[in-house]
Write a structure and sequence with these properties.
about 120 residues, alpha+beta, 4-stranded mixed beta sheet, two-stranded antiparallel sheet, about 20% strand
């Protein structure tokens, strides 16, 4: 049986950097880390929001989740965003809002079990 303590907490942006200072680089590198941001248009705000946080925090998150991407079925194959070192996966939205995406560290071996892009919710 896999018996390991899981510490999961939510931190607003203004306190995340202070919290991270409490951990050594070894602890951060051996932890599975996830970052989430409701971005309100991935193409418009990726650089100013997500990559800014990643640079400022100086952490290689294993998974970067982004919601409200506004990637639709009609624009999902044009100029897809990227972050060096990550694989981009997404569920488009059929609406003018919504959409979900993950940037997954390229060293991880993973399988997408299901992608659900409907008018009620988008899930990956």
């Amino acid at each position: 049986m896999f018996n390991q303590r899981i510490l999961s907490r939510y931190f607003p942006p203004h306190s995340l950097k202070e919290h991270i200072k409490r951990y050594t680089k070894d602890i951060l590198e051996s932890s599975f880390t996830i970052f989430h941001n409701n971005i309100r248009s991935l193409r418009r705000n990726l650089e100013t929001q997500v990559t800014h946080y990643l640079h400022e925090l100086n952490i290689n998150f294993n998974i970067i989740g982004v919601t409200e991407t506004k990637i639709t079925s009609s624009n999902e194959f044009t100029d897809l965003p990227s972050i060096p070192g990550y694989v981009f996966e997404h569920a488009p939205t059929p609406l003018a809002c919504g959409g979900a995406s993950l940037f997954i560290d390229e060293i991880l071996d993973y399988v997408i079990l299901e992608t659900t892009p409907n008018e009620y919710f988008q899930a990956l």
